[in-house]
Amino acid sequence: MIRLGRIFCTLILLGVVLSGCWDRHELNDLAITVGVGFDKSGKEYLVTTQIVNPNEVASKKGSGYSTPITTFSASGVSVLEAARKLTTLTPRKIFASHLRILVISEELAREGVSKVLDGLSRDHEVRSDFYIIVAKGTTAAKVLQILTPIERIPANKMFKTLETSEKAWAPTVSVQLDRFIRNLSKPTRDSVLTGIRLNGDLEKGKSKSVLSETKPSTYLEYSGIALFKKDKLVDWLNAEESKGYNYIMGNVKSTMGHVTCPKGGTISLEIIRAKTKMKGHVVNGKPEINIQVFLEENVSEVQCQIDLLDPNTVSELERIVETKLKQVMFSTIKKAKQNKADIFGFGDAIEDASPKTWLKVKSDWENEFAKLKVNIDAEINIRRFGTTNNSIIVRPIEE
Amino acid sequence: MEQHILQQSLYLDIGLNIAQINTIFGHSSDIVTGELCLDAEANYKIGYVYLEQLVNNSAFQDVTNALLSGSAQLIETINTGFYHPPDLIKNTIHACGKVQTIEDFHGLCQNMLTGETVILIDGYAIALSVNTAGGDMRSVEEPSTQSVVRGPRDGFTESIGTNISLIRKRIKSPNLWLETMAIGRVTQTTVSIMYINGIVNDKIVEEIHRRLARIDIDGILESGNIEELIQDETFTPFPTLYNTERPDVIASGLLEGRVAILVDGTPFVLEAPALFTQFFQSAEDYYQRAEFATLIRILRYICFFISLMAPSFYIAMTTFHQELVPSSLLFNLAAQREGIPFPAFVEALLMEVTFEILREAGVRLPKTVGQAVSIVGALVIGQGAVNAGLVSPAMVIVVAITAISNFVIPSFSMGIPIRIIRFILMIFAATFGLFGVTVGLIGMVQHLCSLRSFGVPYMSPMAPFILDDQKDTILRFPQWALFARPRFISQKNNIRENNAPTTKPKWK
Fold this sequence. Notes:
Chain B: Keywords: Membrane, Transmembrane, Transmembrane helix. The structure holds two protein chains of two kinds. By secondary structure, chain A is of the alpha/beta class.
């Protein structure tokens, strides 16, 4: 027994010595990559990485002579090959576990993205909790080269801006790799990605001087949702339609919208709670979709003549909101139908409701989707008026 | 010293006896000898021998006074011839202390060495030994280890007699039994075992007897010597006997059915069997409110793990599992590591060793110099090493929290295995990452579970799991709920108390 123990201990110790610290990397041997961009470069892919200069972003004051990030680009037939090729440019090994954002250029997106995503989803080093966005009208490399104020790491800025705008404004949608791939892998389902736009001069955005401006002349801005059919970008939803998409998907956490008052002028309403139920139905052998939207709103800004203290006004307002909401949602559905892209997962809803009908329509779902009847039922509740009741615009008239 | 002289019986003549004693002790200068004459004609002579520094002078004077003042009466009684003179003398001095009758030189020397005064009676081969033990000793002071905010302030001293009295004063029961023996061929150190009959597990007492009897050594200078000779497992960093300077802790241990082993010459009393959880309990846990005690105990276990694993965890996270570190923290750590010449493991080792050096230096130095060391230490570790670019500031924090956590554990002897195992885990972390740390921890737990303390599983009541004993393991239930003694230590007389949960008056 003791002999056995000794042999066992020796083996363990040998393991310690012989394994030679397999897979060990010191922190200062890593090029921490926070952003990756995919572009088209002839027949090859151009991979751009945004690498953090830890000294510049750490809480301790940096040396000040370098930028918080550096980007490197390399091209290759496959994405990971290009990534390995980057080692000829960077002093350290690319470490992608802390990837925050993946930018795909519009050009590449229009050609199809499934090829470039395979490598990323296969690699064990990459976590799948980064967001994917599309560089609208520009290249991913350019987007990644822009320096951003306040949030020193641009990839982090893109990550956080996407999250906050989705939470508080709703025309963006944060899509992570696994969700995107899941949608791609279903032949009847299509997906969306948020677009990012580069405003201003690229050269200026690359230099640190952009950080010392109170109003940055070059900046990144989310704008619209890219509509994918299969793995190809086919169309863009505008801001309104993007919001409509989020309403349909039940993705709205909080947002602000305005409607026209009965007597002209506008009134802004804040959505404090939103709930959407999507259900498939079969009526006379035809599939239908019922969407129930439930919204709770607060009046947040009044810029018109309206007597909020009158209950009738409130119900009238609710009706106006309902009309507006339906209009927005239908416009989104219309856009999707035009492109024959089921970005909402209507197909899934019908499959859940009636698998038999689904089997019939599945094969020609593209066209079925374009013809699909969608009913929207909205329930709007205006709850509170904030810390005051009637607007100051109303009061002088009453006197 | 030749054995045959010691085994000789005493001579009839005082002078011969004294000469022999002097020979035996090699004419040591601290031997005091003298003769008293009980009557004017010097018919009745009495001799005394003692070791100067071991005897309490006033006690000795009491003895001589008793003899001299009662001499007239004594001689009268002797002259009646009805009584045996040594018995009469024994009776005379009985009031001065416990008296023993000795017949050979061996006993005589032993008694002299424990501070007794030996009285030789002319014409009889008999000596009387009176307990006049004295000599300088420390008074009862507050223990320097295991001090408490609330609780008794007395601590054991180097004198076994004082220590026994401190325990006896707390447990006024005839069932508190004391057995004394001398261990050490040369030192003849008094070792006592104490237990409460009727509560203690007799098998454990028997085992302790057996193990103590097996000791064959020239000298016992501290209870640590005994501990190493009677512990169950030699090759373990974990202590399997508990030691404390606090009589209240020993008293509570006795009440739980444990056995105390007292060694003359040290304030540290041993307690057996000792369990792993015991080293995370402080006397104060039972004097403060239960809620607070529970919280503090949980904190101690947390600190145990911090102290054990913090450096290895840091090494594993920064060299193997960077993906587990939150991004912004990673940037910070990476920035700190820029320009550090050593790998994280060497960095950690460097700091840990530096800390151990400082700690060891601080322990040995006098208090005044100790302060200087701590200043140097703080500057060297905190500032210098970071400014010199040898280690990263984060590593200093890790080492600091490791060190501080170690001091939270109430028992010093449990701090030592943590310090040892920490380094082993660091090596594992540097070679295998968290996988290695986990393997190391599994190994440690296996080892812990294999330990026994006098037959009691070391990890009980956690492994084997005893639900009822969980009341006083990590948690500390209110006093009324702790009605049973720990089940694994003794199965006798298990119920300790019978109290209602609340004494609040009931309203209708």
